Amino acid sequence: MDKFTELTAIAAPMPTENIDTDQIIPARFLKTIQRTGLGKNAFAAQRYDADGNEKPDFVLNQEPYRHAEILITYDNLGCGSSREHAPWALLDFGIRCVIAPSFADIFFNNCFKNGILPIPLPREICDELMDDARQGSNSRLTVDLERQVIVRPNGETIAFEVDPFRRHMLLEGLDDIGQTMAHDAEISSFEHRPVRAWVPSITIGTVK
Amino acid sequence: MPVTTSPRTLFDKIWDDHVVERLEDGTCILYIDRHLVHEVTSPQAFEGLRLSGRRVRRPDATVAVVDHNVPTSDRSKPIEEPQSRLQIETLEKNVAEFGIPYFPLRSASQGIVHVVGPEQGISLPGMTIVCGDSHTSTHGALGSLAFGIGTSEVEHVLATQTILQKPAKNMRVSVEGKVGPGVTAKDIMLAIIGRIGTAGGTGHVIEFAGSAIRDLDMAGRMTLCNMSIEAGARAGLVAPDETTVAYVKGRPFAPKGEAFEQACEYWRSLASDEGAYFDTEVTLAAEEIIPSVTWGTSPQDVLPIDGFVPSPSDVADPARAAQIQRALDYMGLEAGQKIAGTPVDVVFIGSCTNSRLEDLRAAADVVRGRHVAEGVRAMIVPGSGLVKHAAEAEGLDKVFLDAGFEWREAGCSMCLGMNPDRLTPGQRCASTSNRNFEGRQGPDGRTHLCSPAMAAAAAVTGRLCDVRELVKETV
Ligand code: SF4
């Protein structure tokens, strides 16, 4: 996973609540067996017309937002599916940070696991950042994970909270699995607790 | 395990019994009893294992099913869609390579993962259950802690049989009293989502309680828990009781003999203690719930069937007003119009929300002696091969076929536009599924969520209507 330390990039304004995972990547594009390549269909329904032409009024079709690496939205971003295709699509488009007043739980976690930093901030602050993002080529924000601040185009800084464990993993570009496997002995001893004696195993030949 | 003396909730108890280790920052390594795998969210996880040279820790706690992509028509032919075929073939290759038990497409037991798990006794009370699919919450009906995970977590569970998580907050939604005739678990759940909103359960696990919930059969409880995710919750659950035990007993993969007795004793100990603390409590009166449908493009856009579509001018918040306008435009509805009477093109009875035998019976009760309205395409898609078989044994297939319904093979079907069953642009569908997002059932398709009985009523009248009026006629 790519490390996330500091990002200075264009922020795109999407002043909408409840942007769901089906909007981020419509279900018909999910039939891939790889993680990459979904970016071109991110937000497909809003981004392209029926003939596949770009809709000029959609923000990510406009300059400079085609190059956005930060997305600012309103409440409940990423509601809907647990499918990780939504963060993969965002990442493949180039988004590394999403900012909203609130997020859907699973999407929030999936972002971290794929190297995207989700930042929840109060609605008033999102409104200010939304205004920053509307300033076209002047819509560059700096997200500094080390210091846990966002630097606005006018130089003002906004502090944000992030789970220390998640922060550490992002800063180092670490993968969860390796970390957990270090606890193998504890997992093995858990498996042998007597209270679990009733839990049946499923043998391969018995499923047909 | 610390001995806790303070009263605990059902969720607390299952959680505590699965914590392998609590890390410094409060994140827990949580042991997973059952991992259900399907073709859409697993290929990249297996790819990851291969790339890092890792194995599956507990193939005997893992079960794979194909459901999302499968055609629900003739299964004797090869799958036409090349990408669907690729996902299915990839799963078959992966389960063979990693030694994972698998229900193949042509198995008599194949079906939607959330129907198959409980039906086979693979999902059991008191367990932690995960699957790379948000509607894993369905299994919570058994009194298990079941939640959807993303593909990175699928890989994590395959490799370690655990996930990393912090405990959720506890929410209790109590529905007290008795529901009226024609009111189903789906209507109860739509009413709950209408009340708390699609973010109402964020960060929480919802325990459904109260006399109206206790009165539900397991199929109804599964409908309820299935849509917990539409209320924003991480999971939903119902405490195991005698209904649960009777349901589980004798299922193919349920414990047998002494192990079953030991299990039952454990399951009965899981109910929330008197005085357990809930961060959030919501109470609904069952008598006030009437058959409901959604009008918009979010599951919280719920209306009782005698209700009127909202208008942007009803709300002060401009963002919300714009959203209502957008939903009206998308759905092709007028502000202030009556929702009843809206003509439908398609009726879909199926999905992991409402495709069990009990759901099909409820639909058949409305359909019997009637015919699908002209110009309406109506389809029944049983949740599993076993549901289909059981329904046929009762003659339900005949009721539906005689009435002009399609009677199809098990799968996710028109719940999401991923297989050949999808809406064409502008088509309006009364659907028993769980999501009415834009394009969910096909690009520009319009979805009205409702119960199987309400969907059946829409099929025979050609319009969204109050099923109670039809049922009254036949009394
Ligand atoms: S029926 Fe629908 S909601 Fe259920 S698992 Fe299939 S696609 Fe997901």
Automatic annotation (TrEMBL), chain A:
Family membership noted in the UniProt record: Belongs to the LeuD family. LeuD type 1 subfamily.
Assembly and interaction partners: Heterodimer of LeuC and LeuD.
Reactions it catalyzes: (2R,3S)-3-isopropylmalate = (2S)-2-isopropylmalate
Domain called Aconitase A/isopropylmalate dehydratase small subunit swivel: residue spans: 1-123
SUPFAM superfamilies named in the record: LeuD/IlvD-like (SSF52016)
Cross-referenced Pfam families: Aconitase_C
EC class: lyase
Protein name listed in UniProt: 3-isopropylmalate dehydratase small subunit
Organism encoding this protein: Gluconobacter kondonii
UniProtKB/TrEMBL annotation, chain B:
Record-linked InterPro entries: 3-IsopropMal_deHydase_lsu, Acnase/IPM_dHydase_lsu_aba_1/3, Acoase/IPM_deHydtase_lsu_aba, Aconitase_4Fe-4S_BS, Aconitase_4Fe-4S_dom, IPM_dehydratase_rel_enz, IPMI_cat
The UniProt record lists the keyword Metal-binding: yes
Functional pathway: Amino-acid biosynthesis; L-leucine biosynthesis; L-leucine from 3-methyl-2-oxobutanoate: step 2/4
Pfam families for this protein: Aconitase (PF00330)
Entry note: cofactor: Binds 1 [4Fe-4S] cluster per subunit.
Entry's transmembrane regions: none
Keyword Ribosomal protein: no
Keyword entries, A-Z: 4Fe-4S, Amino-acid biosynthesis, Branched-chain amino acid biosynthesis, Iron, Iron-sulfur, Leucine biosynthesis, Lyase, Metal-binding
Origin: domain of life: Bacteria
Cofactor: [4Fe-4S] cluster
Entry's EC annotation: 4.2.1.33
Residue ranges annotated for the Aconitase/3-isopropylmalate dehydratase large subunit alpha/beta/alpha domain, each copy included: 12-462
Reactions the enzyme catalyzes: (2R,3S)-3-isopropylmalate = (2S)-2-isopropylmalate
Binding-site residues for [4Fe-4S] cluster, renumbered to this chain: C352, C412, C415
Function: Catalyzes the isomerization between 2-isopropylmalate and 3-isopropylmalate, via the formation of 2-isopropylmaleate.
Similarity-based family: Belongs to the aconitase/IPM isomerase family. LeuC type 1 subfamily.
Record's subunit section: Heterodimer of LeuC and LeuD.
Name of this protein: 3-isopropylmalate dehydratase large subunit
